[in-house]
Every structure is written in structure tokens, then in C-alpha cells.
Amino acid sequence: MKIAVYPGSFDPVTLGHLNIIERTVKIVDKLIVAVAIDSKKTTLFSAQERTDMIKDATKNIEKVEVQSFSGLLTDFVRKNKADIIIRGMRAISDFEHESQLALMNKRLAPEIETIFMVTCAKYSYLNSTIVKEIASLNGNISQLVPEIVEIKLKKIFSNKKV
Ligand code: ADP
Question: Is the CB of 127 within 6 Å of ligand 1?
Fold first, then answer.
């Protein structure tokens, strides 16, 4: 059984993330989307909210499980009997940071492989930060995020304006 882990902050999940999830389930038996609780980034959504939004957005995709995790990623991967880490690669600018992470994880856990999925072109400029920025300025994000995320972001930013 091939089990892969797709870790990230997912603050919030975008259609770019979902595209990686949909393509990865075609090549593994189970995909665990792992929401980082100890993200170094300051997050807009709590780990619980980030997890719940991914659960909602992936409810019709078979083989996907969503969990939050804290501590070392490699420990989480081992605990779940997985041996693949999936990461998305958008542009060459992702490469340096991502290859550093992959090499460090390899050092910590040599049996685990990191596999990079190259984003599809239409999502290559998409990230969670940009989505939050557009939403905060009242822009249209319907083509960029799942419906549940659009609803949540609209609620947050319309409340802020009151
Ligand atoms: P992190 O803080 O760990 O980078 P993110 O939620 O920003 O978490 O991203 C999680 C993973 O998803 C990363 O590997 C990132 O490169 C990838 N990713 C983010 N946005 C996209 C996108 N639009 N297309 C493909 N992969 C993406």
C-alpha cells in the first residue's frame, strides 16, 4: 500500500492545492493531507478551520484523509506508515527552499522520498497569501479557491469592514 503525505499550512486551501491532491490520488493508494499546526507563518485561520475546509473541499475525492500535525514532519510520516512526501512546485523560485527541505527530510529519514508535482499552468501564480489579499480588497476569488473558502473569507473581511 503506497501512502503519501501532502503537508502544508493551507491557510487557506486553494484550487492549486486541490489540483495537486486530485493528481496525486491517481498514483497512490492513500493520500494524507497534513495541516501544520506549528506553521512558522502567522495564519489567518486556526489549524482546526484549515483542516475542516480541506475536509469539505475533498469530501468527494476517494483515498484522501485530512489530519493536522505538530512536530517533525518525518515523525508524522513514519507514524502514519507512509513513505512519500508530496510537495508542489510552482516556479523556479520554489526550488531552492523546497530542495533544502527535501534534503533535510532525507537526512532525517532516508527511507522517505519527496516527490514534487509540478503545478498546472493556470495555478502557477496562485498562493494562499495572494488569495487573502484579493479577498481583503473585495476582489473575486471564486476561480481560485473552493466554495467553502470563498464563503469563509468573505465573512471574515466583511466583518472587518463593519
Ligand atoms: P507551506 O507553508 O508548507 O509552503 P503551503 O500551504 O503554502 O504550505 O503549500 C503547501 C504545498 O503546496 C507546497 O508544496 C506548495 O509548493 C504547494 N502549493 C501551494 N500553492 C500551489 C499551487 N498553486 N499549485 C501547486 N502547488 C502549490
Answer: yes
Secondary structure class of 105 (helix, strand, coil): helix
Whole-model pTM: value is: 0.94
Q: Which amino acid is at 139?
A: G
Is the CB of 94 within 6 Å of ligand 1?
yes
- Cα angle for residues 113, 116, 121 (degrees, 5° grid): 170
Query: 162 C-alpha vs ligand 1 centroid, how far in Å?
Result: 32
Q: What is the mean pLDDT of residues 51-62?
A: 97
Neighbours of 117 (CB within 10 A): 16
CB under 8 Å to 94, separation ≥6 — which residues? 88
